[in-house]
Amino acid sequence: MGLLDKLFVAVGFKKRKVKIICCGLDNSGKSTIINKLNPKKIDKPVDPTVGFSVEEFEKNQIQMTVFDMSGQGRYRYMWECFYQKLDGIIFVIDSTDDQRLCVARDELYAILRHKDVESTPILILANKQDLDNAISPADLTTALHLYALNAREWNLVATDALKGTGIEDGIRWLSDSVVKKVST
Protein backbone atom coordinates (compact mmCIF):
# COMPACT_ATOMS: atom_id res chain seq x y z
CA MET A 1 0.00 0.00 0.00
CA GLY A 2 1.46 3.35 -1.05
CA LEU A 3 1.68 6.45 1.12
CA LEU A 4 -1.30 8.10 -0.61
CA ASP A 5 -3.39 4.94 -0.16
CA LYS A 6 -2.49 4.82 3.54
CA LEU A 7 -3.51 8.47 3.89
CA PHE A 8 -6.88 7.84 2.19
CA VAL A 9 -7.50 4.83 4.45
CA ALA A 10 -6.54 6.82 7.57
CA VAL A 11 -8.86 9.70 6.65
CA GLY A 12 -11.68 7.30 5.78
CA PHE A 13 -11.95 7.99 2.04
CA LYS A 14 -10.91 4.48 1.20
CA LYS A 15 -11.56 1.17 2.98
CA ARG A 16 -8.65 -1.07 3.89
CA LYS A 17 -8.98 -4.38 2.03
CA VAL A 18 -7.88 -7.58 3.74
CA LYS A 19 -7.78 -11.25 2.83
CA ILE A 20 -8.71 -13.77 5.53
CA ILE A 21 -8.94 -17.53 5.48
CA CYS A 22 -11.44 -19.34 7.73
CA CYS A 23 -10.55 -22.97 8.31
CA GLY A 24 -10.94 -25.79 10.79
CA LEU A 25 -12.29 -29.32 10.77
CA ASP A 26 -15.65 -30.10 9.18
CA ASN A 27 -18.74 -29.37 11.27
CA SER A 28 -16.94 -26.83 13.46
CA GLY A 29 -19.24 -23.96 12.44
CA LYS A 30 -17.07 -21.99 9.99
CA SER A 31 -19.82 -21.14 7.51
CA THR A 32 -22.29 -20.28 10.26
CA ILE A 33 -19.76 -17.88 11.77
CA ILE A 34 -19.06 -16.22 8.42
CA ASN A 35 -22.79 -15.88 7.79
CA LYS A 36 -23.17 -14.11 11.16
CA LEU A 37 -20.51 -11.63 10.04
CA ASN A 38 -22.01 -10.99 6.62
CA PRO A 39 -25.06 -8.70 6.91
CA LYS A 40 -26.53 -10.15 3.70
CA LYS A 41 -26.51 -13.72 5.03
CA ILE A 42 -27.23 -13.48 8.76
CA ASP A 43 -30.29 -15.76 8.73
CA LYS A 44 -29.51 -17.94 5.71
CA PRO A 45 -29.39 -21.72 6.23
CA VAL A 46 -25.93 -23.26 6.02
CA ASP A 47 -24.91 -26.29 3.97
CA PRO A 48 -21.55 -28.02 4.34
CA THR A 49 -18.89 -26.25 2.28
CA VAL A 50 -17.50 -28.29 -0.60
CA GLY A 51 -14.05 -27.03 -1.58
CA PHE A 52 -14.32 -23.38 -0.59
CA SER A 53 -16.53 -20.34 -0.91
CA VAL A 54 -15.70 -16.63 -0.93
CA GLU A 55 -17.58 -13.98 1.00
CA GLU A 56 -16.98 -10.23 0.81
CA PHE A 57 -18.32 -7.76 3.34
CA GLU A 58 -17.35 -4.78 5.47
CA LYS A 59 -16.66 -5.15 9.17
CA ASN A 60 -14.98 -2.68 11.57
CA GLN A 61 -14.17 -0.23 8.75
CA ILE A 62 -12.39 -2.98 6.79
CA GLN A 63 -13.38 -4.51 3.48
CA MET A 64 -12.95 -8.25 4.10
CA THR A 65 -12.58 -11.05 1.61
CA VAL A 66 -13.04 -14.26 3.58
CA PHE A 67 -12.27 -17.66 2.11
CA ASP A 68 -14.49 -20.24 3.82
CA MET A 69 -12.54 -23.48 3.47
CA SER A 70 -14.04 -26.93 3.67
CA GLY A 71 -12.81 -28.85 6.69
CA GLN A 72 -13.36 -32.29 5.23
CA GLY A 73 -10.14 -34.31 5.09
CA ARG A 74 -10.12 -34.62 1.31
CA TYR A 75 -10.20 -30.80 0.89
CA ARG A 76 -7.73 -29.66 3.57
CA TYR A 77 -4.79 -29.77 1.15
CA MET A 78 -6.36 -26.74 -0.57
CA TRP A 79 -5.91 -24.48 2.47
CA GLU A 80 -2.29 -23.70 1.71
CA CYS A 81 -3.18 -22.50 -1.80
CA PHE A 82 -4.66 -19.41 -0.10
CA TYR A 83 -1.78 -18.54 2.28
CA GLN A 84 0.06 -16.08 0.03
CA LYS A 85 -0.64 -12.43 0.85
CA LEU A 86 -2.96 -13.48 3.66
CA ASP A 87 -3.76 -10.82 6.27
CA GLY A 88 -5.47 -12.97 8.90
CA ILE A 89 -6.50 -16.49 9.82
CA ILE A 90 -9.65 -17.66 11.58
CA PHE A 91 -9.35 -21.21 12.87
CA VAL A 92 -12.60 -22.66 14.21
CA ILE A 93 -12.65 -25.46 16.77
CA ASP A 94 -15.69 -27.55 17.65
CA SER A 95 -15.38 -27.38 21.44
CA THR A 96 -17.53 -30.49 21.84
CA ASP A 97 -15.44 -32.73 19.57
CA ASP A 98 -12.85 -34.07 22.01
CA GLN A 99 -12.36 -37.13 19.77
CA ARG A 100 -10.81 -35.01 17.01
CA LEU A 101 -9.11 -32.36 19.12
CA CYS A 102 -5.66 -33.77 18.34
CA VAL A 103 -6.52 -33.71 14.60
CA ALA A 104 -7.56 -30.05 14.92
CA ARG A 105 -4.30 -29.30 16.77
CA ASP A 106 -2.25 -31.01 14.04
CA GLU A 107 -4.04 -29.04 11.31
CA LEU A 108 -3.58 -25.79 13.23
CA TYR A 109 0.15 -26.38 13.62
CA ALA A 110 0.48 -27.39 9.96
CA ILE A 111 -0.89 -23.94 9.11
CA LEU A 112 1.35 -22.16 11.61
CA ARG A 113 4.49 -23.88 10.28
CA HIS A 114 3.88 -22.68 6.73
CA LYS A 115 6.38 -20.01 5.64
CA ASP A 116 3.71 -17.79 4.05
CA VAL A 117 1.85 -17.19 7.33
CA GLU A 118 4.75 -16.67 9.75
CA SER A 119 3.61 -13.22 10.89
CA THR A 120 -0.11 -13.60 10.17
CA PRO A 121 -2.36 -13.05 13.22
CA ILE A 122 -4.58 -16.01 14.04
CA LEU A 123 -7.96 -15.93 15.71
CA ILE A 124 -9.01 -19.26 17.19
CA LEU A 125 -12.74 -19.50 17.78
CA ALA A 126 -13.74 -22.09 20.38
CA ASN A 127 -17.21 -22.69 18.97
CA LYS A 128 -20.24 -24.43 20.47
CA GLN A 129 -19.47 -23.14 23.96
CA ASP A 130 -23.21 -23.09 24.68
CA LEU A 131 -23.32 -26.88 24.86
CA ASP A 132 -22.93 -28.75 28.14
CA ASN A 133 -20.09 -30.97 26.92
CA ALA A 134 -18.00 -28.10 25.52
CA ILE A 135 -14.34 -28.01 26.49
CA SER A 136 -13.57 -24.71 28.23
CA PRO A 137 -11.38 -22.12 26.48
CA ALA A 138 -8.71 -22.57 29.18
CA ASP A 139 -8.63 -26.34 28.63
CA LEU A 140 -8.55 -25.84 24.85
CA THR A 141 -5.62 -23.45 25.22
CA THR A 142 -3.73 -26.18 27.06
CA ALA A 143 -4.82 -29.02 24.75
CA LEU A 144 -3.83 -27.04 21.65
CA HIS A 145 -0.48 -26.01 23.20
CA LEU A 146 -1.25 -22.37 22.43
CA TYR A 147 1.12 -21.06 25.09
CA ALA A 148 3.94 -22.30 22.84
CA LEU A 149 2.91 -19.59 20.35
CA ASN A 150 4.51 -16.80 22.36
CA ALA A 151 6.24 -15.35 19.27
CA ARG A 152 3.00 -15.17 17.27
CA GLU A 153 -0.01 -12.92 17.61
CA TRP A 154 -3.02 -15.09 18.50
CA ASN A 155 -6.25 -14.98 20.43
CA LEU A 156 -8.74 -17.66 21.48
CA VAL A 157 -12.36 -16.54 21.87
CA ALA A 158 -15.31 -18.60 23.11
CA THR A 159 -18.21 -18.52 20.63
CA ASP A 160 -21.69 -19.79 19.96
CA ALA A 161 -22.12 -19.44 16.21
CA LEU A 162 -25.88 -20.02 16.25
CA LYS A 163 -26.50 -17.08 18.58
CA GLY A 164 -23.49 -15.07 17.40
CA THR A 165 -22.00 -14.87 20.90
CA GLY A 166 -18.30 -13.95 20.95
CA ILE A 167 -17.93 -13.61 17.19
CA GLU A 168 -17.89 -9.80 17.15
CA ASP A 169 -15.27 -9.71 19.93
CA GLY A 170 -13.04 -12.08 17.99
CA ILE A 171 -13.40 -10.21 14.71
CA ARG A 172 -12.70 -6.91 16.44
CA TRP A 173 -9.43 -8.37 17.78
CA LEU A 174 -8.52 -9.77 14.36
CA SER A 175 -9.37 -6.48 12.63
CA ASP A 176 -7.18 -4.54 15.06
CA SER A 177 -4.33 -7.04 14.60
CA VAL A 178 -4.59 -6.95 10.82
CA VAL A 179 -4.64 -3.14 10.73
CA LYS A 180 -1.61 -3.03 13.02
CA LYS A 181 0.23 -5.56 10.82
CA VAL A 182 -0.65 -3.84 7.52
CA SER A 183 0.28 -0.38 8.88
CA THR A 184 3.84 -1.43 9.73
Strand order across the largest sheet: 2-3-1-4-5-6
Number of strands: 6
Q: What count of helical segments does DSSP give?
A: 5
Estimate the global geometry from the Cα principal axes: globular
Q: Proportion of β residues?
A: 15-25%
Low-confidence stretches: 3-11
> What's the CATH superfamily, by name?
P-loop containing nucleotide triphosphate hydrolases
Tell me the distance between the termini: 11 Å
What's the CATH C level? Alpha Beta
Here the CATH topology equals Rossmann fold
Q: Helicity range of the residues?
A: 25-40%
Family: Belongs to the small GTPase superfamily. Arf family.
Keywords: GTP-binding, Magnesium, Metal-binding, Nucleotide-binding
Protein name: ADP-ribosylation factor-like protein
GO molecular function, one term: GTPase activity
What this model shows, in words?
Keywords: GTP-binding, Magnesium, Metal-binding, Nucleotide-binding. GTP binds at residues 24-31, 71, 127-130. This is ADP-ribosylation factor-like protein. GO terms for molecular function: GTP binding; GTPase activity; metal ion binding. The protein has 184 residues and is of the alpha/beta class. It is built from five helices and six strands. The model is unreliable at 3-11 (pLDDT under 50).
